[in-house]
Amino acid sequence: MSDDEADPELLALLRQHLQGKLNLNEEPETGVLEGAEYVYDNSIDVALNMRATKNAAAIIYEKMQQKEFSTTSWSEHELHPKPKDESTVAFIFTMDLLNFSFWSLRPEDERFAISYRDKTWTGYWSLVASLQRALEEDIPITDPHYWQNEEECNLESLRYVFRSCTDEEIPLLEARLSCLREAGQVLYEKYNCSFAKCIEAADKSAAGLVNLLARDFDYFRDEFRFEGRRKPIRFLKRAQIVVADIWACFNGEGYGEFRDIDKITMFADYRVPQILATLGCIGYSPPLQAMVMRQDILESGSHYELQLRACSIWCVELIRREIKRQHPETKVNAILIDFFLYDTMKQLEAQGKETMPHHRTRSIWY
After folding, report:
1. Are 268 and 366 in contact (CB under 8 A)?
2. Residue percentage of the chain with pLDDT more than 70
């Protein structure tokens, strides 16, 4: 759509208003899937292989059935919090507020890592281990009051919280402090210093909670302009994964009860695109393929990176639809497929079976 054309959604809204049919109580939509489909339809550097996607759907369904993969799988990991109370809600919010950019170009034994409970943790698990370790040391790392205290919560104290057992520091430390500062301020001003109040305000709508996070917190507003489209393309990776983690942790009950949880899409990061490419579901143009293989940096918001992220979201949606088509009775959504694919890719990495690297983008969005 050019800038000279009228926005059809705006025209429809105006028409409904003039006809007295405007429904202000419509169910919330995140717009993530809609944007992903638009980018896929206009992508020239990332393509989907439909035959491979169908084959992957069959394999993924079979493996998930074998492993009895469900929301309970989330709490089974030793590092994830076990209490089903507000302290866990605060933990998950803090965790996903800081859940970005752990990759390293250093060798495995030199990358940022956390030593905790007689194990060495890297990647996402280094974050979870750091938070658990801090709480055991009586550092109130999940408390918004602490985030706002510039004397106690600063670069020096965060450097201690995320102290590594190697010489490499956690990436983007200053950005992580900024995320905590902003979140603390918003929670203080609007939600009585409690993320549980945000959940309450969303009224059991997963899409509503995602939209609330993107509206009120700058550091959750993961969206970018894409050529030819007036509205920004929304990815909202960390906003969506907050909702997904709450849902999975609480098994869809209590704080985790959302009537529209299936509106959450795959979380556009760097691991799931990697395994989708490994499975042959997505393919890259020669220039993009070369950049990924050389481990060149793809700038956040670049045309390459937006296509890669959006097409991955759409690919997982097609996998979900194929599984539901073949097995209408099964309870599966993009969240569970994403969790399964992420875990599988990490297992391949640990076994040294990666056939191609993940793309490299350094940003706060993932």
Report:
1. yes
2. 93
